[in-house]
Specification:
Helices cover 58% and strands 11% of the residues. With 101 residues, the protein is mainly alpha-helical. It has one domain. A three-stranded antiparallel β-sheet has the order 1-2-3. A hairpin with a 2-residue loop joins strand 1 and strand 2. Helix 3 crosses helix 4. The protein starts with a strand and ends in an 8-residue tail after the last helix. The model has no long low-confidence stretch (mean pLDDT 94).
C-alpha cells in the first residue's frame, strides 16, 4: 500500500496491464525479470509502477503521474523496496507467469 497525497494506492496487475507494460517496454515481463535476476532497470521500474498503481476505488492513476510518483518513492524509500513491491504484486496477481508445472 502506498499513500500519495493522502490517498491510498496499491499495485494491481492483470493480463491487460501486463500487455500494456510489454508494449511500452518492448520486452516480455518474464524476460525483463530474468535478465537481471528480478531487478528491473530504473526505466522499467517506473513503467511497471505507473501502469500498476491503482487507488482503493479500483481506478488506475494517470500514467505520467504514476511515473512521477515512482521516481519520488524511489528517492524516498529506495530502489530495492519499490522493486520488491512490484515483483511481489506480480507474483500475487499474475501467478500464472511463475508456474513451472
Amino acid at each position: 500500500m502506498f499513500k500519495i497525497n493522502e490517498k491510498n494506492y496499491e499495485l494491481k496487475y492483470g493480463i491487460k496491464r501486463i500487455e500494456m507494460i510489454e508494449a511500452v517496454t518492448e520486452m516480455p515481463v518474464m524476460a525483463s525479470l530474468q535478465r537481471n535476476k528480478g531487478m528491473l532497470s530504473i526505466q522499467h521500474l517506473k513503467v511497471y509502477f505507473a501502469y500498476g498503481l491503482q487507488d482503493t476505488d479500483g481506478e488506475y492513476i494517470d500514467i505520467n503521474k504514476g511515473m512521477e510518483q515512482a521516481e519520488k518513492l524511489m528517492e524516498a524509500e529506495g530502489y530495492i523496496k519499490l522493486n520488491m513491491a512490484i515483483v511481489a504484486a506480480l507474483q500475487r496477481d499474475c501467478a500464472f507467469l511463475f508456474q513451472t508445472d
